[in-house]
Amino acid sequence: MKRYRAFTAFILIVGALVALGYGLFGPQKATAALLSGLTLASLYFLLGAGLSLIFGLMDVLNFAHGVLFMVGAYVGYTVFGNPRLILNTAPLFLALAVGIIAGSRLAPLIPNRRFIPYLLALAGVGVTLWGIRGFPLRPLVAFEPTTAGGAIPTALAQEPLSRMLLRLGQLALAGLLLGPVAARWGREDRRAAPWRSLALGVGLTLLAVLLLLGRDPLERFLLGLSVDVRFFLALVAGAATGAALGALIETTLIRPFYGRPITQIVLTLGLMFAGAELVKFIWGKEGRPPMAVPSLFAQSCRSPNLLAWLTERCSSIDVLGRAFPTYRLFIIAVGLLILVGVALLLKYSRLGMIVRAGVQDSAMVEALGINVRRVFMAVFALGSALAALGGVVAAPFVGVYPEMGSIFQLQAFIAVVIGGMGSYTGTAVGALVLGLARALGDTLVTTGIALPGMAQALRASPAVARASTVLMMAVVLLVRPAGIFGRKE
Amino acid sequence: MEKTGFPLWLRRHWPGLVILTLMSLFPFLAGLAMGDPAAVPPEIQGVGRVLALAETGRAKFWQGMVIQMFILAVFAMSYDLLLGYTGVISFGHAMFFGTGGYVVGLLVKHAGWSAGAAVGVLLLVALLQSLMVGALSLRVKGVYLAMVTLAFAEFFYILAEATDFRQYTGADDGLHGIYPPPFLSPTDHRTRFYFLALVFFLTMYLAARRLVNSPTGRVMVAIRENEARAAMLGYNTFVYKLVALVAAGVMAALAGALNAFFNLGVTPSVLSVATTIDVLAMTIVGGAGTLTGPVLGAAIVHLLGYWLNRLFGQTWVLLFGVTFILIVVFLPYGIVGTVQARSWRWRAVWRERWRRIKEGRKFPLPS
Amino acid sequence: MAALLEVQDIHTFIGQFHILQGVSLEVPEGSITALLGRNGAGKTTTLKSILGLTPPREGKVIFLGEEIGGRRAYEIAAMGIGYVPEYRAIFTGLTVEENLRIAERRKGDLKRKADFIFTLFPDLKRLYRLPGGQLSGGQQQMLAIARALVPDNRLLLIDEPSEGLAPILIQELMGAIRRLSAEVTVLLVDQNFQMTSRLADRYFMIEDGRTVRSGAMADLLNEPDVIRRYLGAVI
Ligand SMILES: Nc1ncnc2c1ncn2[C@@H]1O[C@H](COP(=O)(O)OP(=O)(O)OP(=O)(O)O)[C@@H](O)[C@H]1O
Ligand SMILES: [Mg+2]
User: ipTM of this predicted complex?
Assistant: First the structure.
């Protein structure tokens, strides 16, 4: 009954938006606007889905979600266009991780005195700083390969292998110092079996050394790959980074503070701020132009219809006589795919069942003998991966820039407020409504509103359209504070 | 013998009085210690020399630092009315601070109003703004409210940065040339501005103390402790939260206005998340739920920012973010909160010991 | 006979409130033990403390001869304790089947126990595909108990199963609990003294978070004063 009403409301709102579009701009422009709206909706959904799932399950509102979106975009962009940066930095992270894994095994050897963890942490941070001192980050970031498969510039800006290996050692040592602290920090769970962490440690070490020793051939290999493969790698790397960061955030900043919701969200807010600064620190304050698109969307021509596009691979397609970029269709497709995929996961997998149950009552799930914290971590990682994936997908559309995290996060917030926090359907609905409204708003403010009695049409920048969505949120709060599909407390 | 009247008052308030005296003497002490004697003509002697020295060299700079601290302290106290006293987590407090700056800025610079009139209008604007934001965002609770308030703040931030209004707001360059009346100019008469800020700070501190010690304030604390119970006792919790939000909003707006006058301008960054992080940090460092906490926190955070900036240059913002996270993790109750908790524990322990001694352990105590 | 579960003088805090101030009890294997007390005496909190949902700060909880205090709730539950919370906290968004399946600890638990569960609660078979939220109060209670029977539990903690049920349903429920107690030990909390007194062999009485009496149920029935004083109930 209630659901039925929510659906009616949803259909009415979307219908009204579509009708408004057609009434204002006529079919041609309106269709283009609505397609753009779907594109935006798809991105808002990728971001909002994680926010909403995480909130529903563990009552944590992750203000750093936009940062994950942005980091995904940056990592994807870098994997795609500047593997040299990854090949030189990833081993350092891996070395630190190996050190921490080994160090956490040594935790029982450390005498149980209060000040010792602090001392170790301080030493660990010190050694880390020592290990990354003088690392040629700037030139590595600035390095932009010209074209795919083109000549490789000389090994300029890279440090000699010996120096890098020394750094690996230093960071592994830092990890060893930090490991016991980390182990204490995450004392909640029993530790993995020893052979597991041994295997993990050895594997990561091998990976780090291989990446480093093979950095030149690997770079040549990666840049020699086709755009499509590199794009795919970017998607995978972005999502994987998102998942890893999500798991890290959950274990370090969220898990120790269950039962203290204020601390949790204040921490994620801090992370939102520090994360954006970190991105600026690594990649610079300036953004980058949109990433290159896969070959399917790359030929500069306009296909008359979808079928023709699949053979011609044009960058745009004819929609009622107007060109519409085909890559945006890809964004829409990714959004739909994830929407359906996650819905199936929620409906049919055991994890999904636990999540649905946990959204209602996570203590009861735990009382059934299920380690609900592990599920929390999995969902946090999944949500973060979706956000990061959204970032990579967005990179060829909007480029990458340090403000993209907070900008997209704001819209995702508004989408989940409209749809109803904690509801998966609601998030999809909210994203759709907001995407359409945004696209119409953008069209409206850029073509101008001709008010009677005014000489000039009223025009505004897209920033104003972006801000006006907050007003939409205000209206929803007035009418239905829990959102269209929200549960009442 | 019972002390009454003035001696009692003195006994109770002496720490505050000492601090107040120190604060009033600060410009002159700073002038004597750090002023630039070369900048003051030798024929000026005596009291005049002290006054003049205060306007020179590092004395002037450090007065500026303290002025900024007063302003931030008021801002942080206003935030604590929400976070610490009412338990309302708003992530949009920057919007009030920024509004204060922009409203007086627009009125003084573009409408040519006097500073006093502008502040008068600001009071009204801030009242309306906080009423509206409160009426909307207080319809939801907890983390949800944090999100909604953040969205509202972003709304104003985006507008301040939007190129559409560049001729008024200066867009991302900010609005510059917000001058207070010449006799209070922070550049020419820093000491006078210092006392203006001091008086402002004291007034706001007393007002906030009045509020939190009033019956309304006690209901606010009850809401923080358990909103459902407060509602069950018959209090309209929405109204009390709205009162807290309006009081906090107006206080923050006034602080924002003074900030604009002191810096002779505002930039959109006063409306950004960074400002909210600042005020959160100050409140948490000092200790939420106390009034002295945010004041202490404002001083510490401001100094910390200054030192980080001097030591690390550009990177300091990143380091500040990291420091913020560490503070929340390791000092969740802040300095004042932690000290209070410790001293309560110590006092309890000593009271217990004293009781045992007095009673000669007549009753066996549970071990 | 060694007790299956032993609780020794536990103290539990919720926030700053000292809710349990010394609860002790013993549940022998193969029995139904009742935990009695007025509203707010701390019965629910005791059950939650045993399960680790509100971990006790002091005292011992011993299950199967092992001290389990300080372990996480899921570990304790996985040792073989089933919990049927008050207000029949089934998952309303999950179907009856899913409500049962989620309780599986090993693959095939549900298949193995299905017959047992459906002979106890034949209704559930008919409602198998329905969302839990659409079940009636009585059916939800059956489901909550059935859910605790899916894995191989040694002990069931059942909290206020009769609350809000019609008398006829209470009869049915009593029958079910009696029958399942042949398979699994039960610690039962219920305000309905008629019911508990007929089901349980032994009782523990708590008041203001302390155990104040214990003994055989048959003896308690001979002391109407005590019953009136501690439970406000008349028989
Ligand atoms: N979250 C809480 N915060 C504060 N006090 C609580 C909380 N939960 C329970 N209490 C208090 O703990 C005491 C015991 O509660 P408990 O639910 O264990 O009682 P009970 O014996 O199960 O009562 P009932 O028969 O009503 O279910 C009560 O006085 C209750 O007010
Ligand atoms: Mg109870």
Answer: 0.90
Residue C135 CA to chain centroid, in angstroms? 21
Cα distance between residue A189 and residue B177, in whole Å: 58
The tokens for C113 are 């126990």
For C197, the token pair is 């007194």
pLDDT digits (tens, 9 = 90+) for A364-383: 999 999 999 889 999 999 99
Facing residue for A421 by CB, picked from B136, B144, B164: B144
Question: Which residues are placed with Cβ below 5 angstroms of ligand 2, an ion?
Answer: C 44, 86
Question: CA-CA distance, C194 to C167, in Å (whole number)?
Answer: 11
d(CA A51, CA A72): 16
For residue A153, what pLDDT band results from cuts at 50, 70 and 90? low
Q: How many Å apart are CA B105 and CA B111, to the nearest integer?
A: 9
Of B270, B269, B331, nearest in space to B300 by CA? B331
Q: Give the helix/strand (H/E) hosting C226.
A: helix C224-231
Average of per-residue pLDDT across B147-157: 92
Up-side HSE of residue B143: CA atoms within 13 Å toward CB? 24
Residue C162, by phi and psi: left (phi above 0), alpha (psi -120 to 50) or beta? alpha
Following DSSP, what letter does each residue of A64-85 receive, concatenated?
THHHHHHHHHHHHHHHHH-HHH
Q: Does C73 contact chain A (CB < 8 Å)?
A: yes
Phi, psi of A133 (to 5 degrees): -60, 130
Report the C-alpha gap between A96 and A106 in whole angstroms: 15
C35 closest CA partner among C231, C232, C228: C231
Q: Is A473 on the interface with B (CB under 8 A)?
A: yes
Contact (CB<8Å) A366/C77: yes
Minimal C-alpha gap between C155 and chain A (Å) = 13
Beta-carbon contacts of residue B259 (< 8 Å; ≥ 6 apart): B68, B71, B75, B97, B100, B101, B266, B270
What is the pTM (predicted TM-score) of this model? 0.89
Does the C-beta of C14 come closer than 6 Å to ligand 1? Answer: yes
Q: Answer for the pair A462, A396: CB distance below 8 angstroms, yes or no.
A: no
Burial of B100 (0-12, 13-18, 19+ CB in 10 A): buried
Gap from CA of C53 to ligand 2 centroid (Å): 14
Decide: residue A219, CB within 10 A, 0-12 exposed, 13-18 middle, 19+ buried.
buried
Task: Give the DSSP H or E segment for A417.
Answer: helix A404-419
Three-state DSSP class for residue C228: helix
A363 and chain C in contact, CB less than 8 A: yes
Question: Is the C-beta atom of C19 inside 6 A of ligand 1?
Answer: yes
Closest protein CA for atom 31 of ligand 1: C40
Is A59 within 8 Å of A260 (Cβ atoms)? no
Record the tokens describing residue A108, joined without a space: 């029982």
Give, for C206, the enclosing helix (H) or strand (E): strand C202-207
Residue of C191, C158, C194 whose CA lies nearest to C176: C158
3-state class of A368 per DSSP?
coil
What's the CA-to-centroid distance between C210 and ligand 2, angstroms?
Answer: 15
A322 CA to centre of ligand 2 in angstroms: 67
- Regions of chain C with pLDDT less than 50: none
Q: Is a pLDDT exceeding 90 seen at residue A300?
A: no
In whole angstroms, give the CA distance from residue C156 to residue C187.
6
How many whole angstroms separate alpha carbon B148 and alpha carbon B94?
13
Domains, in order of start, for chain C: 30-53+72-231 (3.40.50.300)
Q: With beta carbons less than 8 A apart as the criterion, state whether A407 and A460 touch.
A: no
Domain ranges, ordered by start, for chain B: 74-332
